[in-house]
Every structure is written in C-alpha cells, then in structure tokens.
Design a protein that fits this description.
This protein has no helices and 11 strands. It is mainly β and 120 residues long.
Length: 120
C-alpha cells in the first residue's frame, strides 16, 4: 500500500542543477530513514545521500559539497538538491525509505527511479 513517487530528473548541462523529490504515500506510522541511491548500467546501486528523521545526514565522497539531502517529515518527502552537476553524475536515481506501516511492521520501499543525464 505504501509507495514512493519520484520526480525531478531530466537532462541538464554540466554545471547545472536539479532538485529531486520523493513522496511516500499510503498508511505510514513513521519513516525511520529516507535515502537516495543511484545506479549506472553494469554497476551496483550506490548510496548517494542519507538522512534520518532527526536531521543527521551523510554523503558519498563524490557528491560532498555539491548535493544536499533534506526531509519534510510532515509531508513524508525527501529532496535531493544537486548543484554543479557533472557528466559522472549521470545515472538513475532511486529513493529508498524504511517505513513503519501496517501492523507497526517495518518495510523497506524503493521508488521507480528517475533518470538524471548531465551533458558536457
């Protein structure tokens, strides 16, 4: 019943910016964590940025200083502000959430992914 809907991907030139959004909907008691991952063909999905409900964040070394993750707990939403984009950032970006839902059980959800393409 819980689902994640991502938006904000697209095609931009190097040095440009994008803002990704991920909204969780359905029966949600609480969200313990909402994170952003990315994946390129032939590679494992890698963690880009992570956040907790308490505001603690961490980033992959490759995006530190350029990407910012933030959460709006009231709207069950996580954002990823991406600045100074590089061609190496091209990937499918996925939202992941660990949610306490029906029956107060913990569930691990993934969004469908949104394509980010950075051109030279």
């Amino acid at each position: 019943q819980v689902r994640l809907v991502e938006s904000g991907g697209g095609l931009v030139q190097a040095g440009g910016s994008l803002r990704l959004s991920c909204v969780a909907s359905g029966f949600i008691f609480s969200i313990n964590a909402m994170d952003w991952y990315r994946q390129t063909p032939g590679n494992q999905r890698e963690l880009v940025a992570a956040s907790t409900s308490g505001g603690v964040t961490n980033y992959a070394d490759s995006v530190k200083g350029r990407f910012t993750i933030s959460r709006d707990n009231a709207k069950n939403t996580v954002y990823l502000q991406m600045n100074n984009l590089k061609p190496e950032d091209t990937a499918v970006y996925y939202c992941n959430a660990k949610i306490i839902g029906a029956g107060l059980r913990t569930y691990d959800y993934w969004g469908q992914g949104t394509q980010v393409t950075v051109s030279s």
